[in-house]
Amino acid sequence: MKYASLALAILCGFFFFKASSAQPAFEPVLFKTPDGLTLEGRFYPGGMKKGVVCAHMFPADQTSYEALAKDLARKGYPVLTFNFRGYGNSEGSKDISRIALDMNAAVRFMAERVTCMVLIGASMGGTASILEGNHPKVKGVVTLSAPAAFQGLDARSKVSELKPPKLFVAAKSDAAAYDSAKHFYAHAPEPKEILLVEGSAHGTRLLEGPSAPLIKRKLFEFLQSSLGYGVRP
After folding, report:
1. Sheet with 116-122, side-by-side order of all strands
2. Model-level pTM greater than 0.85?
3. Are the beta carbons of 196 and 170 closer than 8 angstroms?
4. Structural domains in the chain plus CATH codes
């Protein structure tokens, strides 16, 4: 009986270790915006010194990036996800016109922990990423269905000033996002890329649908190019 209990304990420990290895843990974090609000986030350590900041879409929250964040952390990238003001336990009300301030705070938080980073923004998070993409440590910006302008948040003119490499992704039947991606690509300086896929998936839902393998492969290639790591899907 004693040996059976010991064997069971070892077996449970083995499966716990496997589960822990398969599910990179995150650290709950808090940081302040320039206008004094406290935002909550999740920091996935990853292990490398070049990382990724993920900005969520409306009306989702940071959990929409959980699968991608874990995948990137397994590949060694430190990842920060966070809730914009008014979402989850982040302070303030949901004011989309001011979320560039939240993006600024997230970039500054990450800049203290990595040597450089790529911003990945879904929908409004992509628009905010364009607005804050010229930070010295930002080496690339990826947008997933980002609107050119949305409820007071406007990147139509700023995209022409965005210096780091850019990747604009949208679905062809997501009309507004499709038009915005084409606008961004037309007005952004080099280096730039555009990926237009079939269907109507929007934002982080692009990472779940039929086009997900293609988009993830392109995303990993972009990260490898921008940050220099040999990442594979």
Report:
1. 27-32, 38-44, 79-82, 50-55, 116-122, 138-144, 166-171, 192-197
2. yes
3. yes
4. 25-227 (3.40.50.1820)
